[in-house]
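Backbone-to-sequence.
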């Protein structure tokens, strides 16, 4: 025995699926036809060879429009695809460094971090301490402050440097993405 509730159809209600007693009808060319019964509106749509589509179900009375439903659905899909295509996802890129990093290695990491920020991504900087390096955490914090200063033209700090176990974590976000 199936105890699930009936599935709500996706998209707007069309023709006989419209449940309101009276609806406000907009014609195919945009002119207002007024408030009428659903049957009369469906009859008017059939005369034009089109469908009656519920555009604004929450209005009082609901607003329906006479149009070609297949064409309407196709245009909605195109709009949704265009919106998906144009949206930018923000990735979190990670840069791992050590407190005793040499100058050239530091420059390479900075160049990568700058490139990520310029592309609109976030950068997570992780500095890991090993063994006796834990006694010199100030070196790590100073290095991260230097990084923040050098990247201040392309990014800002989202998460200030903080100690988590044996590592310091910091997150920078791009100012270009906003």
């Amino acid at each position: 025995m199936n105890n699930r509730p009936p599935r709500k159809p996706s998209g707007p209600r069309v023709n006989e699926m419209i449940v309101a007693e009276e609806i406000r009808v907009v014609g195919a060319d945009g002119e207002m036809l007024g408030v009428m019964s659903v049957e009369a509106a469906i009859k008017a749509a059939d005369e034009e060879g089109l469908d009656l589509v519920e555009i604004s179900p929450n209005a009082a009375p609901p607003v329906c429009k006479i149009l070609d439903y297949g064409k309407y659905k196709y245009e909605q899909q195109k709009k949704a695809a265009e919106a998906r295509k144009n949206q930018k996802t923000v990735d979190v890129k990670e840069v791992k460094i050590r407190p005793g990093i040499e100058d050239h290695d530091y420059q390479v990491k900075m160049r990568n971090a700058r490139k990520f920020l310029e592309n609109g991504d976030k950068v997570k900087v992780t500095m890991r301490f090993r063994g006796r390096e834990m006694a010199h955490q100030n070196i790590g914090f100073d290095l991260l402050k230097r990084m923040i200063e050098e990247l201040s033209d392309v990014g800002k700090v989202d998460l200030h440097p903080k100690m988590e176990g044996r590592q310091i974590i910091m997150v920078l976000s791009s100012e270009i993405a906003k």
